[in-house]
Design a protein that fits this description.
heterotrimer; A: alpha/beta; 2 domains; B: 138 residues; Rossmann fold; four-stranded parallel sheet; 4 strands; 17% strand
Chain lengths: 287, 138, 345
């Protein structure tokens, strides 16, 4: 695997080139934070900005989140890791960005860490892939032969659980929610304006951080991301009270994959599974 | 007091709702636990309707649409099938009884089927007992 | 008056306080410590750096029911919420957070606006301040020194606590604290050596350095006014901002709220719920117009409110430098760095 430092250099070189040649107006990458362990998502718009670009094991952010912030047609270069590239693909499928307006800088990487715990998060809370699915330029050598666990392995424990125990588990987790909405804001696929939870007509849920509203918010959000969640784990990483949202998203992704034979964000030719159908879909899935 | 389930029926205008009408005009008997809401198509059903129905105290939700291939809008129920299947999986993983949500394809001529499905589903919900997990406690 | 107890016997003190009233103290949760009402004295846990949520929730809860009513019934049948007026003890508050109560008093208990809920709770509560452990490294996000607060400032607390090896020294700072302390028979009297340790600890707290910059209130207030229209600056500062509500919810001095009427089946509750200026619908008007639709506008509002408007209106910065907003920001946006950059802009 290419060193983090080397990837950082490549990122800077490419960003400089792309901005200098006027191929893009903004480079979405990672930048210096208030200290080394706290890098930030960063938008470099001038060659002078490039100096601030960094890359290390704490650059977890899914930069695809920021794509929808720029007007359609903006030429954007974006640095993506494996899951992030799937988010870009998914956004292309949903026509939120156009392929021709993007320069995708792929980063094959292994061993990203959770800044709160220092723990390696590869396949536990994310999709477990190391190489970007779609890219124009690769900024390091592809990772091969690394032990790759199925992203759905972590689910076994929860699937085994008794139904009542699972209900208690999730109820307790959702009761912790303070409704800061960091999960939906960190999510690259959550771009609705307004979000259903902010609507007042109809009003789906109370604003107060308590059970009925929390339940409504989370269950509906899982549904809205069904077949679209690319398992980057940003929602649970952003959560200040550590609700394991990734588990639920993984489970829904797994079910969708089994029912519809298609994983989210793997090809720009696909359509999101819930805005698509097959005549031969079986009624068995409804049982 | 014995438990009388409250069941929300969401029926598509063209098939199931008309089927229900037929059940009525042919004077078929079926349990009175069902309260029907008419929608134009089963694909109009937002999954939040179902979550909200359970929150507001429904013990079961019965969704009725046209048979696949017979949709008035050609493909609406094919989308609905995928969507509602996902809703069931979500309810199941949350630890909720997925059996409280049922999707049936009932055509305008199937008054009999409508009455049978309602009877069967009501019995099933009666067995499951009152729904307390999602219901908002007053 | 100085008293002491062994830290492992802290649950005995907790049990006594629980008999006297409501005890709010840090408890360990999965993701970190938080203040909670104590039901089991064993749960009190002082092995924390600082809590995730600030202690403002003790006086200004995230959700507060005001009145329950029935639709179509006369007002006289509405039931206002009854305040729990038992004495309360807020145990283990860090000096920077203690300072925040003073700032919040401006909004809830001064300037002609008195919030009875805040005032009653504040009056009924004895605050046990707790110095940072000077042997632990300081968190890189903290910057309370910049706001003139030190790691062991007893000011604002009723009783101030300091850790001495395996003991906890408790010193009465106010009359209220002294009265309470004299009633607590579970505590032992502190010796002259303990007194000396306490004084030295408070002084040593000044050397426990967080991030620091010289901040002139007038200068920063003026500067932020001047760069209000500098869209480039604010766009740059907010490039990473997700516009979630974490920073405002964990902040000890953010006080915005929303009054909601939640009605169901003909019954309603009017309640106050925290709101956040970082939410899109915060400024959404009934007409549909929204004066702050962009992320940069919302971040600008937040920074300017704390470091400019608040100074102009009340003469103090509405920030205590506890570092929570930086620590819990999912994208590491740092208010300290933004203020620093603003001064140079």
């Amino acid at each position: 695997m290419t060193e983090f430092k080397k990837i950082e250099e490549n990122l800077k070189t490419e960003a400089t080139r792309l901005l200098k040649e006027g191929l893009v107006t903004v480079v979405l990458a990672y930048g210096k934070g208030f200290d080394e362990n706290h890098p930030m998502p960063y938008a470099a718009k001038t060659i002078a900005d490039v100096e601030n670009i960094v890359f290390n094991e704490y650059c977890n952010y899914n930069m695809a989140r920021y794509l929808v912030r720029y007007p359609q047609g903006t030429k954007i270069a974006i640095a993506v890791k494996a899951a992030d590239s799937r988010a870009v693909i998914q956004l292309i499928q949903e026509e939120k960005v156009k392929r021709e307006n993007l320069v995708i800088l792929g980063i094959p990487v292994q061993g990203m860490k959770n800044p709160k715990t220092g723990e390696i998060i590869d396949s536990k809370t994310t999709c477990g892939m190391y190489n970007p699915v779609l890219y124009d330029l690769l900024l390091g050598e592809e990772v091969h032969g690394a032990k790759s666990a199925s992203p759905y392995d972590v689910l076994a424990e929860y699937e085994k659980m008794d139904k009542e125990a699972r209900w208690e588990f999730w109820k307790k987790e959702f009761d912790k929610c303070i409704r800061c909405y960091a999960c939906r804001k960190a999510c690259p696929m959550c771009y609705c304006d307004p979000c259903f939870i902010d609507q007042s007509k109809p009003k789906w849920a109370d604003k107060a951080p308590q059970s009925p509203g929390n339940m409504m918010y989370h269950l509906t959000r899982f549904h809205h991301l069904a077949g679209r969640c690319i398992d980057c784990g940003e929602c649970s990483r952003a959560c200040p009270v550590d609700i394991p949202l990734y588990l639920f998203h993984k489970k829904v992704a797994k079910e969708c994959e089994e029912m519809f034979n298609q994983a989210a964000g793997m090809s720009i030719e696909d359509k999101p599974v819930l805005v698509d159908f097959r005549v031969e879909d079986s009624d068995k899935i409804l049982e | 007091m014995s438990f009388e389930p409250k069941i929300l029926g969401i029926a598509c205008n063209w098939c199931t709702y008309t089927g229900a009408d037929l059940a009525g005009t042919t004077r078929l008997k079926y349990p009175q636990n069902l309260r029907v809401v008419r929608v134009m198509c089963s694909s109009r059903i937002n999954p939040s309707f179902i979550f909200r129905a359970f929150q507001l105290g429904a013990d079961g939700v019965l969704v009725g649409g046209c048979h696949p291939g017979d949709c008035h809008y050609n493909t609406g129920n094919l989308y609905a099938r995928r969507r509602l299947a996902t809703t069931k999986k979500i309810l199941e993983f949350a630890g909720f009884e997925p059996g409280r949500l049922r999707v049936e394809w009932i055509s305008a001529s199937e008054g009999n089927k409508f009455a049978e499905v309602v009877a069967e589903f009501t019995a099933q919900i009666r067995n499951l007992g009152p729904q307390a997990k999602l219901k908002i406690q007053e | 008056m100085l008293k002491k107890t062994a830290i492992e016997k802290i649950s005995q003190l907790a049990a006594v306080l629980m008999e006297k009233g409501t005890l709010l103290a840090p408890v360990k949760e999965v993701s970190g410590h938080n203040f909670a009402e104590i039901n089991d004295p064993q749960k009190v846990d002082l092995s924390f750096y600082n809590t995730i949520m600030s202690p403002k929730g003790a006086f200004f809860p995230h959700k507060e029911d005001f009145v329950k009513y029935k639709i179509g019934k006369p007002l006289s049948e509405a039931e206002p919420a009854v305040l729990n007026l038992k004495p309360a003890f807020l145990f283990g508050v860090r000096p920077c957070d203690v300072k925040s109560f003073e700032i919040m008093d401006i909004h809830f208990d001064a300037a002609g606006i008195i919030d009875p809920y805040w005032r009653f709770r504040r009056e009924a509560t004895t605050i046990f301040g707790y110095a940072y452990d000077l042997n632990q490294p300081v968190d890189s996000a903290d910057f309370y020194n910049t706001l003139g607060i030190y790691a062991a400032d007893p000011e604002g607390s009723d009783i101030f606590m300091v850790k001495k090896d395996k003991e906890l020294l408790l010193k009465a700072i106010t009359k209220k604290g002294e009265n309470l302390l004299s009633e607590l028979a579970v505590l032992k009297d502190g010796s002259a050596a303990d007194e000396k340790y306490f004084t030295e600890y408070v002084n040593k707290g000044k050397e426990y350095k967080t991030r620091f910059m010289t901040l002139d209130q007038e200068a920063i207030a003026k500067k932020l006014e001047d760069i209000f229209d500098n869209t480039d600056f604010w766009t740059k500062m907010s490039a990473a901002c997700l516009s979630c509500g974490i920073c405002t919810f964990v902040c000890p001095t953010c006080y915005c709220f929303d009054i909601c009427d939640d009605t169901l089946f003909g019954k309603g509750t009017r309640r106050r719920v925290w709101d956040a200026c970082m939410f899109t619908d915060f400024t959404l008007e009934a007409s549909g117009h929204n004066p702050r639709t962009q992320v940069y506008q919302r971040l600008r509002q937040k920074i300017s409110h704390k470091y400019s408007y608040h100074i102009r209106k009340y003469g103090v910065i509405s920030c205590v430098g506890c570092g929570r907003c930086t620590r819990y920001c999912p994208v590491n946006i740092d208010i300290y760095s933004i203020v620093e950059a603003a001064l140079k802009a």
